[in-house]
Amino acid sequence: MKLTLTLLFSILFVGELAAETLDPQDVRNALAMQRKVLCSTVDGEPTTFWWAGSAYSRRQGERDRLLFDVEGMNVRACVSDTHPERGEGYRMVSRELLIYRDAETGEALSTWQNPWSGETVDVLHVANDPVNHSTYVRNRDGTPLNWGGMITEGQWRMNITVPLFYPNPLASAYQKQIGGTYHATEMFNFFGATDELLDPATTTVARQVGWARVSDWLPWMNMQGREGIIYMHTAGLRLSSWNALPDRMKEEIEAHYPDYRNPPPLDDDRVNVTSWMYYQRVAEGEVVAPDRSE
What we know:
Strands 1, 2, 3, 6, 7, 8, 9, 10, 11 and 12 form a 10-stranded antiparallel β-sheet that branches. This protein has a two-stranded antiparallel sheet with strand order 4-5. It is an alpha+beta fold and 294 residues long. It has 6 helices and 12 strands.
């Protein structure tokens, strides 16, 4: 019954907006614009994002190294929601993969040779399920929602920067005293045509996307406290459907991650999973990583 009511709200909401061009200064219009960028204004309609690029090292006193290539995807859907304090909004449910690939062959890595230690380590790809969030017409601090983008010469763009600094699940209980806190930054870019964004009849936008990440070394690299960071830089697309993924990514999903053909259920209330949490679950035997021995 809950999904039926939220679907009705979505239909009524879009119907109200259909009479005129969306106004970014109107908080409900801003909500619709942001939802178009990040998923769809249609409840339950799946959206697939895909991106690819490379990962590099950054250490004091040496040139940056190309470590490996990366290829990722996220399958998601949104559903209308109402918060008792923050008002109308939506929930987004999603799953995401990041596959580490050999920079020369493009093959998904099963092992990787650490260039600093000489050790050959097992590679654990990112399989975060779920990655969900909620957005409402009022932010957590009570201020009205801003759609978050800029419009110039018929084009719009949205930059989302997410600084991360929180207790690392792989570190001790004394992170404040001795270090170990997880430190990273996620950077997202979305682009598109203004007339499409402001048209009340369109349900999705953002055909071109970008993703960059700066973080501590990945845990499976076994860097043993060495100074430095890893950064990743990619570009990608919102695809017409899951089937539009590159063949090698579809083969990866079909072989190892079949759940990633579809987003989680719209009422998914599980705790979000990060790449470090996923590593911990695999290391402690709670989750079995795909067998890549063949």
